[in-house]
Amino acid sequence: MTHAHVPSSAQPPKNPVLEVTLKNCYNASEFAALEGNLSRVSGVTGVHLDRTRGVAHLEYNPTQTSKSALETNLKVAGYACDCADCRPSSAQPGHPALDKTDEHAEHVM
Question: Is the whole-model pTM more than 0.85?
Fold first, then answer.
């Protein structure tokens, strides 16, 4: 079975993305609380938590906050972390693939 794939015209987030490796966030309730808290931080424009790897991706507006300010915010909140700038993730909020049906779900091997 063949079908055409429509190329995505959506652009990745324009703001920088900070990848935060969380060293002391262990369960679902901690991740949920952290996600809510991070989404309310001034200058943060997107939050995605990878609960399996213990990593948060924070998209932020550099005119409103900075990498060091976000790092400080996390440490003041009690989270030990390693923070590094990274490329935007396809799992970022607003990515065109989110909430879409898998085009290949009907394929059977």
Answer: no
